[in-house]
Design goal:
Elements: H1 3-9, H2 11-28, H3 30-33, H4 64-100, H5 102-117, H6 120-131, H7 135-152
Helix pairs in contact: 2-4, 4-5, 4-7, 5-7, 6-7
Length: 153
């Protein structure tokens, strides 16, 4: 039995896959699905769902469904870019260490051990305080944390 057949024959992975695809489709189609942007004030503050507001409104009166859809776009972009960078760096280091072997492997793997020993949340807080919150800093922190896991594989 193939991986896909086993994966889709069970309800939990199938449900997770469907939810993931739905999030991706909504995020990609957000400009087509909603007539206004996430910062537009569309109604009274703190309205419940209904009456044209799929998820209600926030304390300013913005549509929360639009904010979620546009936020998903940013989250998906951050994850793809960060995992691409971390995977490239980590895979390159792992391949070089495995191919060369010997002292090169030992040095690279000690660097990987050092990177794996750093607490993730502390590193994220440090970057946030020192460099401020931005798309680039979030990607850098995630890539800085994940590369070592790819190198270890």
């Amino acid at each position: 039995m193939s991986f896909a057949a086993r994966f889709f024959s069970r309800p939990a992975p199938l449900f997770g896959f469907v939810v993931f695809i739905a999030i991706v489709v909504i995020a990609l189609a957000a400009p087509l699905l909603f007539s206004h942007g996430p910062m537009a004030i569309v109604g009274m503050p703190l309205r419940p769902p209904g009456a044209g507001l799929l998820a209600g409104s926030d304390v300013i009166g913005r549509d929360m469904a639009v904010g979620l859809a546009y936020g998903a776009r940013i989250s998906l972009t951050v994850s793809l870019v960060a995992i691409g960078i971390a995977g490239s760096i980590g895979t390159s280091i792992g391949v070089i260490a495995g191919y060369k072997g010997g002292w090169t492997d030992r040095i690279f793997m000690r660097i990987v051990d050092l990177a794996l020993s750093i607490p993730v949340i502390l590193l994220a807080l440090l970057f946030g305080v020192v460099f401020g919150p931005s798309f680039t800093n979030v990607v850098a922190v995630i890539a800085l944390v994940l590369w070592s896991q790819y190198a270890r594989m």
